[in-house]
What we know:
Rossmann fold
Amino acid sequence: MSINTAVIGSRLAGSSVVFSILDVLASVGRDWAMLHGIPAAEPIFEVSLRTLDGAPYWDVNGRKITPDAKLDEAPVPDLIIVPDLLFAPETGLPEDFASIADSIADAYARGAIVASVCSGAVLLGMAGVLDGKEATTHWGYADMLGRDFPTVNVCRERILVPAGEGHRVITAGGMSAWEDLMLYLIGRFAGAEEARRIAKIYLIDPHLDGQLMYASLTTSRQHQDQLIAGAQVWAAQHYDTSSPVAAMAERSGMTERGFHRRFKRATGQAPVEYIQTLRVEEAKQLLETTGAPIDEIAAEVGYSEPSSFRSAFRKRVGISASAYRKKWQALSPVTQ
C-alpha cells in the first residue's frame, strides 16, 4: 500500500525544496529500475503538493504555483511534509498560518506522520505536535523555536530528529537537510537498499557531522538592556584581550557576579561563553580565508594555550579546526 504524502505549499515557501521533495519521492522504486533496465516496483509514495484551499499561489520568489489539492482533500495524507519557510525569526509566522497549523494538528491526531525541513519546524510548533518532544531546525531559527515553544527540547546541533511515539514527528535542520529527511523516509518505508539507491542516483551525502559547522555562532536573542548592549559592542572589539569578562564588569560599574547575572538574563549566555563564542567565530573566519597556522590563529583570537582553543572550537563547531579549514577552503576559487 502506497503512502499518501502531502507537501505543503505556501507564499513563504521556496519552490526548490518543495519540488525536490516531490521529485525524489516520486522516483522511489522507479528510477533505479529504469537505469538498470528492470521492471519498476509499485510506487511507495503517492505525492502531491497541497495548500489549505487548493488554489494557486505565488511562492516567496514570485513564481506562480498550482497545487494538486487541498490539504484535507481525499485521499487524506498519511504523511505531511512542511518545507522551509522564509520569515524573520524575530517576528515569527504570520497569523494566517495558524489555519494551516490547525489542519496539521488535526491530521496528526488522526494518525498522520508529520515532518518539517528547516524553519518549517516552527509551523509544527504552532500546531502543537512538538510539545514535550525533541526537535531541530535551522540554526537561525533555533532560539526562536525554543523561546516561542518552551516545552520543545531544541537539538540545534542535530540534522535529523525523529521524535514521539512511533516517531510520528520528524524534524530536519537546515534547508539542505531535506535530503537527509528523504533518505530517512525512504529507508523507513521502502527499505535501506532503496534509500542507498536514491542516494546514488541523486548524489546525496547525509550530513553526518551535524549542522554546528554551518552555524553563525554569534546569533543571539534581541534585548533592550542598553548597558549589556554596550558591553557586547566592547566585547566585539576586545574579545582577544586578557580577562575580557572582568573588564566588561568593571566598565559596567557592577560587581562581576551582578554583571554575570544581568548579562545572562539579557543574552541567554554567560559572559565567558559569549566571549568564547566571539573568539571561535573569528577563528572560523580566519580558517576559511587565510593559511595562517592554527596555533597562530588561536593566539590571535585570545587563547594563550592552543589546546584550550582546540577544545573550545570542537565543542562549539562539532569538528576540529583543521577539518573545518579543509571543508571550507575547498570552496575557495582556484587561482592560477
